[in-house]
Amino acid sequence: MCVKRILGVDKGQVRMFEAVIAAIIIFSVFSASIFLMYPSRIGILHEKEDLDRLGYNILHSLIETDAIEYVLTESGGNADSRLKMLIEEIISPSIYYNLTIFKCEDNGVVVTLRSNFSVSNISPDEFSRLPEKSSTMAIYTSRSGENGGETYYIILVLAKGR
Amino acid sequence: MRRILRNNGGQIILALAIVMSIVILSVAFSIYQMNAGRQLLKYEPVKEIVLAATSDFDRTLTVALRDASLEFDETYDENNASIKGESVLQKWMRSAVMAFSHLGAKMEIVERKFKFSWNTPIGFSFTYADFSMDLEAYGFRGWIGRSDKVVVLRIFNGTVRKTGDNSVTLIFSIIDDGKPVPNLIPGLLNVYVWNRNQSKWDPAEIVNMKYLGGGNYSLAFSSTVNEYELGVKLRAVTPKDGIIVSACYIRGINSNEVDWGTLYLSVGEEDPNQEYLLPYSLVSFKTRQATWVISKQKHTYREIASPPIPENICIDMRDTQYVNITIYVQPSPVPKPGKPAIFNVTLFFYNSSSGRNESIIFKPEQFKITEKQGTYTANVSDHCRGIIPSGSIVYMRVTVISEHTLHIILNDNERLYSYVELGKAYYTTNG
Q1: Contact A49, B42 (CB under 8 A)
Q2: B357 in contact with A at a CB cutoff of 8 Å?
Q3: Do B95 and A111 touch (CB under 8 A)?
Q4: Which of A122, A102, A120 minimizes the C-alpha distance to A112?
Q5: pTM as predicted
Q6: Residues 215-244, chain B: which have Cβ within 8 Å of A?
Q7: Which chain A residues touch B66 with a CB distance below 8 Å?
Q8: CB of B422 within 8 A of CB of B264?
Q9: N or C: which end of chain A has fewer CB within 10 A?
């Protein structure tokens, strides 16, 4: 009955009706396409990848320039400020970090970690509230000083400010 | 139906919309699949972790070589030095496995070697090691990393000159992993001059040291020794890593004269009737033929001793991997078939300062003699490693088992018949 009524109307009305249906189809398809093409987490994934790369670059830079060696053998109290300065020279101000150095204590069978040193540019509470963090790590064997031959485990956690 | 077919203008719009939507959806779905695939191929920091571990292994190997060279400098025992170096590598391995345990890291030191050559004009301290690494979390398996480290100290032979009454000059070079070491200071270099009279290395005072570039240094040091009988030993510590390396230059000194590593059964110059274990230089060749007689009827056993050894001697090192005893013997009566002359030989040393008695070098080894006379040799490699400290007296004990009398031929005025090779003698500078 309904179809008969539709078919019974004028040509102009049918064309209008068809155009509306075509527009709805096109709109739906575009919406679906946009949904498919932009997955919701892609931005965060990219962000974490970038932070990971940055983290490993920072660790590599600190190790190869002997900055870590200097910090570990430094007997004075300005080792942390020097390390902070070095890190903050590399990263942008919108990135927060926490770098912790653990000493690997080996009793011949089991290795345990003892926190040795930590620097950050944000308080622990604020840092924990940041949504996406990247954690990178490296091991470092010191060469000189009284800690010569000791192995350290370094963890660098990075996060982008909101 | 006919009306619908006649009204084809609007239907074309619909058909086009449907075709467009199919195309757009296909493209969008392809992009979606690419994104999904890209997420599967997301960034995994395998390269960074493996390279960081390899880089740290290089540093660890440097520390291991430093500790091993320190041990070798104290004991002159390559075996002990290797153990020391390996303990550093093992400790690093445990720490690295623990540090990367969340990634399912499996690591193992596949091969390692520590080598020291300090008694030639080109001396070196060298190590290399291979380690394997798997990171299960990333499906990464089969990585083999190799690291090596070598420090070379070279005394240029042609440059050693005696310039004044009390001064000797020479040119030497020190190279660390192929790179010249430009910052060696006199405090990191020790010079020793061979004291022939006392058979030991005496420290010499550095008068002048200049860097010539390319890792080369000119050195002047005080010395009163004869220009033609000069022994110089340099011991350097690399400024950056603290690795010890040494090189030795000897001119005009017969190495047999200073070698306590091989001791000959012979008689001494002062007392031709007394048998000794002597280095070549102290053997008397004035006698006709010296014989050491051991008879079961007269002795349960007999011992022959060396004079006190003036410096530490390291046995089982480098070229000689065993203790060798060679004895030229004539049993009496001549052994019959099936009834050989049998005797045991034991080698040991006694050191009064260490308070130890009879440190065995060579456990009782049985010799069976089936002929009228001949040279009998025994090599033992499994229990003869270590140091004979300076001041020790080395003894050889011969115990006759069968009912024979042994005539061990020592030497005549031409040659030496029976001897003990303890390995090469390496003289440590710090006792």
Answers
A1: yes
A2: no
A3: yes
A4: A102
A5: 0.61
A6: 240-242
A7: 148-149
A8: no
A9: N
Cα distance between residue B398 and residue B408, in whole Å: 10
Assigned token pair, B322: 């065993």
What is the residue extent of each domain of chain A?
2-37, 42-160
Q: pLDDT grade, residue A162 (50/70/90)?
A: low
State how far the alpha carbon of A55 is from the alpha carbons of A33, A61, B172, B217, B346, in Å: 35, 10, 45, 43, 65
Q: What is the pLDDT of residues A125-141, one digit of tens each?
A: 888 888 788 899 999 99
Residue of B333, B349, B414 whose CA lies nearest to B386? B349
Q: Which residue has the higher pLDDT, A51 or A76?
A: A51
B316: contact with A, CB 8 A cutoff: no
Four-residue CA torsion sign, B60, B63, B69, B70: negative
Q: Which helix (H) or strand (E) holds B411?
A: strand B405-412
Whole-number Å distance between alpha carbons of B426 and B117: 11
Intervals of chain B under pLDDT 50: 254-257, 317-320, 427-431
CB atoms A26 and B3 under 8 Å: no
Return the axis-axis angle of helices B46-75 and A42-64, rounded to nearest 10°.
20
Q: Distance between CA atoms of B101 and A113, rounded to whole angstroms?
A: 13
To the nearest whole Å, the CA of B241 is away from the closest chain A CA by: 7
- Please state, rounded to an integer, the average pLDDT across all residues of chain A: 80
Tell me the pLDDT tens digit for each residue of B237-252: 999 889 999 998 877 5
pLDDT confidence of residue B187: 92
Report the chain A residue with the minimal C-alpha distance to residue B15. A22
CA B243 to chain centre: 14
Q: What is the CATH number of domain A42-160?
A: 3.30.1140
Chain A nearest C-alpha distance from B27 (Å)? 8
The pair of three-digit structure tokens given for residue B272, joined into one six-digit string: 């031709």
d(CA B288, CA B277): 18
Using a CB-CB cut-off of 8 Å, the residues of chain B touching A73 are: none
Report the C-alpha dihedral over residues A121, A126, A132, A137, rounded to 10 degrees: 40
From chain A, the residues in CB contact with B237 under 8 A are none
* Residues B95, A153: C-beta atoms closer than 8 Å: yes
Distance CA A61, CA B96 (A): 20
d(CA B392, CA A70): 47
pLDDT per residue as tens digits for the range B150-179: 999 999 877 888 877 678 889 999 999 989
Q: Answer whether B209's CB lies under 8 Å from B218's CB.
A: yes
CB contact (8 A) between residue B55 and residue A64: yes
pLDDT value for B253: 55
